[in-house]
Amino acid sequence: MSGLEQLYQQIIMDHSKSPHGYGLTEGDVTSHQRNPVCGDEVTLALRWSADGTRVEEVAWEGSGCSISQASASLFATLAAEDADAGNAWTPDDLQAFIDEFREALRSRGQIPLDEERFGDAAALSGVSKFVARVKCAMLAWVAAEDLLTRRAAEA
Amino acid sequence: MTLSPAPYAGGVTEAAPFSSAELEHIRAQFPILRRDLHGHPLVYLDSAATAQKPSRVIEAEATFYWEANAAVHRGAHTLAGEATELYEDARGTVARFLAVNDDEVIFTSNATEGLNLIAYAIGNASLGRGGAAAAPYALREGDEIVVTELEHHANLIPWQELAARTGATLRYIPVDDSGAIDVDAATGVIGARTRILAVSHVSNVTGAHSPLETLVPLARAAGALVVLDACQSAPHLPLRPRELDVDVAVFSGHKLYGPTGIGVLYGRAELLNALPPFLTGGSMITTVTMEGAEYLPAPQRFEPGTPRIAQAIGLAEAIRFVDELGFDRIAATEHQLGARLLAGLAELPGIRVLGAGIDAPRVALASVVVDGVHAHDAGQVLDNVGIAARVGHHCAQPLHRRLGATASLRISAGVHTTADEIDQAVAAIAGVRHFFGLTGENA
Ligand SMILES: Cc1ncc(COP(=O)(O)O)c(C=O)c1O
Fold first, then answer.
1. Which of A28, B1, B36, B296 yields a CA-CA distance of 20 to 30 A from B401?
2. Where is the Aminotransferase class V domain (chain B) (predicted)?
3. How many other C-beta atoms are found inside a 10 Å radius of the C-beta of residue B142?
4. Per-residue pLDDT for A95 more than 80?
């Protein structure tokens, strides 16, 4: 695979064209993140279970490059798949995903994402070799982290 | 060294473009062009962001450190004298380049600092600093500062802030649907209340020359100061602030084949010597007591502290480099490259060139929007074959918004750019939509 094909894997192209988890509703608590370099935007919400302990859904809206949009879509897909399998994320689970994702993306291709844990989102591993694009891929995940931090501060 | 004062060419010139042998010789002077990227020779088409440096510029800067480094305007040892002479020679070179007097040339760190310098000096005058001499430049409520809708953020935000600090109002001349400054609208914006007109010489997004021949007389009739952002013109055409009848002109050395960390502010001597300083400290004073200080005239008044000595010397070498090439020949070559670029892009389906319809001379630069593909993704396809192009809003968000784009992909040429490199860029842009699975006119 050429460098370019490693970056733009078919999964990423598909998610950027038909995004999952797209659409916010009134009442969602959101975090809005921007990449000022290229104008990528993601606004993201975490939808919690009734008892407030687990993430049942990740919803978002945004515009920008295919990497930023596909990353948000893959993140929402990952949350939905884990919730469907009865493993909806606790705040700690979510933080662990964000930390691993960040570590892999900042590794300059040294640390791939674990396919067992990240599923299709592991296709984003290729982004880590493209330093200028890491911020694009991080956008949705940073929004989720921002929501977690705010939630902890309010508790 | 002598600098030939060529007349203002306005992008149209009768000189011959560089021959391929001459171009080879020019290219050989840029060591970075020997680099490979992803197995392809580097095709550097981002000169509008920053130009590459010929060896002689790098060497001039290094030689100063090797042989003559000392603080300038301070102390009396031999090295200090030599360094001062080299630094002031650099100022003289810039002054001849602009056809102005030496003491009208202020070294700054870049164009952004130059624009802030003039905005803050006027702001300080508005606070009453600088006494009676500065009072004519003071702004108050009811006064208006005018910019255009296509300005780089560096020529917009300092004026927004100055307006906020002084109570003046910031107004702007809109651009029309083609991306050109709307000269008809300008007559309704520039008027009796206008105190400052700040405008760029050449747009960093469309590459088009601004209609200074209309705007400057309007500002003059209103008695306003004219501040010119010459960042994108200085590398391409002879810059003559006096002929253009502007009071202030700024540019960045790094876009003119010079080092980073050095810029120039030209200001009319009467203006500079009437305004209070922006930054203050050593090397700019005559007498200091515990209560206050008296300031030297320009240029020292606006160059407090130890200046950018090596960078100024590097910039002077860069100016000698472009002067030896000759602006008439640079413009003739770049004119052909620009025409080739626009003609090539016009053939491509699903590609929009921002400002394509502007009826004005332009530099060899084009910003494109690829239908259905974000600029960031398009730029990646070019990078993959070794082509360095800029993606983003190029620090001109309002213009992008006005033209219905959030970001674009910009190709910009320099003196080392070849027709083949332009063709490679056009071919790579042609392949972008295909790579992302979009083909044909309606895909
Ligand atoms: C038109 C214009 N004005 C101002 C600037 C600011 O220049 P600098 O970043 O070197 O201060 C630039 C370059 O980015 C520019 O293109």
1. A28
2. 43-424
3. 10
4. yes
- Residue B97 tokens read as 């380049």
* 3-class DSSP state of B428: helix
Q: Position of tokens 């918004």? A: B401
In this predicted structure, the answer to whether residue B64 has a pLDDT above a threshold of 70 is yes
Gap between the Cα atoms of B307 and B84, Å rounded: 11
- Helix, strand, coil: what percent of chain B each, to 5? 45, 15, 40
The third-level CATH classification (topology) of the domain covering B20-53+326-435 is Aspartate Aminotransferase, domain 1 (3.90.1150)
Residue type, B391: V
C-alpha distances (whole Å) from B318 to each of B52, B274, B312 are: 11, 31, 10
CA distance A70 to B260: 37
B403 at interface of A, judged by CB pairs closer than 8 A? no
**What's the DSSP call for residue B277?**
P
Q: Which helix (H) or strand (E) holds A140?
A: helix A134-154
Helix axis angle for B419-435 and B375-384, nearest 10°, is 120
The DSSP H or E segment spanning B387 is strand B387-388
Cβ <8 Å between B380 and A63: no
Using CA atoms in the order B172, B176, B182, B185, what is the torsion angle rounded to 10 degrees? -70
Atom in ligand 1 nearest the alpha carbon of residue B151: 1
Instruction: Yes or no: say if A83 and A53 are a contact pair by the CB < 8 Å rule.
Output: no
| pLDDT tens by residue, B122-131 | 999 999 999 9
Encode pLDDT of B271-293 as tens digits.
Answer: 999 999 999 999 999 999 999 99
In whole angstroms, what is the distance from residue B137 CA to residue B268 CA? 13
Query: Which tens digit of pLDDT belongs to each residue from B14-52?
Result: 799 999 999 999 999 999 999 999 999 999 999 999 999
How many residues are listed for chain B in this entry?
443
Mutate which of A1, A2, A4 to disrupt the B interface (most B C-beta within 10 Å)? A4
Query: Is B231 among the catalytic positions?
Result: no
Do residue B407 and residue A13 have CB atoms under 8 angstroms apart? no
Q: Max alpha carbon distance in chain B (Å)?
A: 75
| Closest to A48 (Cα-Cα) out of A153, A149, A147 | A147
What is the domain partition of chain B in residue ranges?
A: 20-53+326-435, 59-322
pLDDT at B9 over 50: no
What is the spatial distance between Cα B155 and Cα B112, in angstroms, rounded to a whole number?
A: 8
Domain B59-322 falls in which CATH fold? Aspartate Aminotransferase; domain 2 (3.40.640)
* CA-CA-CA-CA torsion sign (B42, B46, B50, B54): positive
Structure tokens at B23: 């171009």
pLDDT in tens, B198-252: 999 999 999 999 999 999 999 999 999 999 999 999 999 999 999 999 999 999 9
pTM here is 0.93
Confidence of residue B1 (pLDDT cuts 50, 70, 90): very low
CA of A133: which chain B residue's CA is closest? B376
The atom number, within ligand 1, closest to the CA of B109 reads: 11
Model pLDDT, residue B13: 60
With b for 16 or more beta-carbon neighbours within 10 A and e for fewer, the B225-237 pattern comes to: bbbbbbbbbbbbb
Q: Could you report the per-residue pLDDT of B338-386, keeping only the tens digit for each? A: 999 999 999 999 999 999 999 999 999 999 999 999 999 999 999 999 9
